[in-house]
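Need residues for this backbone.
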């Protein structure tokens, strides 16, 4: 139910509130925003969740939950509440969207072994939106999954960092062979060892000064399996 008069902002009532008698409960935040500040009352507009992916050896952890309001949050902010069902994911209990902002990004973690779908629900001012986080089945253990370079663009003569990532920690150390498509420009060690019970390892990349832009690919292959990534 809502209450609006000509030339005035409307606001949403709580369950059981009667606009004529005044009995029941009203939405206090909405009322303050409409009556005192003359601002539109924000509502929960969108809520999305990115399904988790394995993070590379030199990648930062990025937020995978995203929530937006229909308009900027009022003074005091907007406190968004979260739940998960089944409880195999761990969203924050609540996220505060700061005043004058309309978006928040946050991290949802999970220790679930897939495949499983987890429904995450966001609630604000009585409105709820849900999104599904899909946890895929785990890949075969100890296989070479990724090789990465950071930064991807580097000035000649400067150093870069490479990294290899396995699908999961191996019960034994893994030797990863490394090659460069142009070792005269970018040099890598002949191999790097991922220690036992680890799933990633970094390695140095040296470059030389060049007179024009050059593209160099770094290749990695697990010696035992021969699987190749670049």
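Answer:
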């Amino acid at each position: 139910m809502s209450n609006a008069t000509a030339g005035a902002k409307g606001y949403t009532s709580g369950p059981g509130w009667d606009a004529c008698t005044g009995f029941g409960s009203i939405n206090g935040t909405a009322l303050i925003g409409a009556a005192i500040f003359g601002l539109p009352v924000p509502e929960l507009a969108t809520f999305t969740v990115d399904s988790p992916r394995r993070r590379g050896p030199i990648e930062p952890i990025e937020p995978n939950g995203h929530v937006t309001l229909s308009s900027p949050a009022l003074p005091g902010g907007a406190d968004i509440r979260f739940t998960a069902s089944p409880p195999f994911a761990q969203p924050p209990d609540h996220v505060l969207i700061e005043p004058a902002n309309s978006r928040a990004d946050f991290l949802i973690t999970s220790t679930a072994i897939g495949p499983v779908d987890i429904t995450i629900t966001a609630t604000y001012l009585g409105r709820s939106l849900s999104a599904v986080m899909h946890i895929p089945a785990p890949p075969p253990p100890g296989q070479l999954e990724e090789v990465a370079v950071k930064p991807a663009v580097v000035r000649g003569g400067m150093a870069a960092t490479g990294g290899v990532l396995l699908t999961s920690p191996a019960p034994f150390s893994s030797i990863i062979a490394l090659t460069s498509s142009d070792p005269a420009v970018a040099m890598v060690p002949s191999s790097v060892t991922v220690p036992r019970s680890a799933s990633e390892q970094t390695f140095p990349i040296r470059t030389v000064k060049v007179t024009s832009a050059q593209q160099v690919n770094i290749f990695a292959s697990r010696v035992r399996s021969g699987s190749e990534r670049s």
